[in-house]
Structure to design on (303 residues):
């Protein structure tokens, strides 16, 4: 479990995390969104014990002390946004150095290196020089480093940035598996294109948490209308007429597509789909446009 109680953190004398309170339980995967400078990276670096706390309480009850650096590094895997300048050595040698710094010894090191490389599908590059890796492979190596000690907490800063398709699938699998393994995942996003595999959503602004709940759009009541895009083959006009009592406004794009603002107080998007189905209106696709977390961010952050 992660527990933060009124935690404040300063960067260069400026408050970057302000009175932040939140509790995350095993098996939760939490997406964090907010505009640039909202404190997302500061939150991750605080949890990774890379930044000192100015005030408040940060605890890992399942771990005990957060001052034992080796114990913390074993329990928390951190994947930063940017790829560092790796030493000019082999992939396996690089991970061995990190495993040793985390307190692993002898067979533990070789086992951890082999396992983590396999988890990120880089086992075929064991023994290759790091400078031969592509940017996507280098980002996957960062993930392998974070997985060396099979951490119970995994932190991602902008997780999909720089990843190749294989790396994207690996992150998706880690997130979906967390509910089974009990691992905590916290991921900060620079945009709001977030996988539905996450269980919770936190919205930040100016170093503060301004909202946080389960990853369900109907729980974020600050949004007054959901923008949705419907494809109703040859029936956009009919769909607009059927949904008239549920929508704030509708725009017929062409005979197939309809863009509408669905009033949130009239119920979730499923109600609109049910109304169309009952009326016999064909529905090919229905999606939030933009994705609903982006609409939450717009409603909560943009004045």
């Amino acid at each position: 479990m992660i527990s933060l109680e009124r935690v404040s953190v300063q960067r260069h004398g400026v408050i970057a995390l302000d009175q932040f309170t939140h509790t995350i339980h095993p098996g939760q995967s939490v997406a964090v969104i907010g505009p640039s400078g909202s404190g997302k990276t500061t939150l991750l670096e605080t949890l990774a014990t890379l930044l000192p706390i100015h005030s408040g309480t940060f605890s890992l009850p399942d771990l005990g002390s957060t001052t034992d650096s080796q114990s913390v590094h074993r329990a928390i895997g951190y994947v930063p946004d940017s790829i560092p300048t790796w030493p000019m050595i082999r992939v396996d040698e690089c991970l061995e150095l990190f495993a040793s710094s985390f307190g692993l010894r002898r067979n533990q090191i070789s086992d951890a290196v082999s396992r983590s490389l396999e988890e990120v599908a880089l086992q075929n590059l064991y023994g290759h020089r790091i400078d031969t890796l592509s940017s996507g492979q280098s980002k996957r190596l960062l993930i392998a480093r974070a997985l060396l000690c099979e951490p119970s907490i995994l932190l991602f800063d902008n997780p999909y940035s720089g990843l190749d398709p294989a790396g994207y699938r690996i992150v998706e699998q880690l997130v979906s598996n967390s509910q089974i393994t009990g691992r905590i995942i916290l991921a900060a996003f620079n945009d709001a294109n977030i996988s539905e595999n996450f269980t919770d959503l936190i919205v930040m602004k100016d170093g503060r948490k301004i909202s946080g709940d389960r990853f369900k759009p109907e729980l974020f009541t600050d949004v007054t209308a959901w923008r949705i895009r419907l494809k109703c083959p040859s029936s956009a006009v009919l769909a607009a007429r059927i949904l008239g009592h549920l929508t704030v406004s509708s725009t017929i794009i062409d005979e197939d597509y309809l863009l509408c603002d669905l009033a949130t107080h009239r119920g979730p998007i499923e109600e609109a789909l049910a109304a169309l189905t009952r009326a016999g209106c064909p529905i090919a696709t229905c999606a939030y446009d933009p994705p609903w977390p982006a609409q939450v961010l717009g409603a909560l952050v943009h004045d």
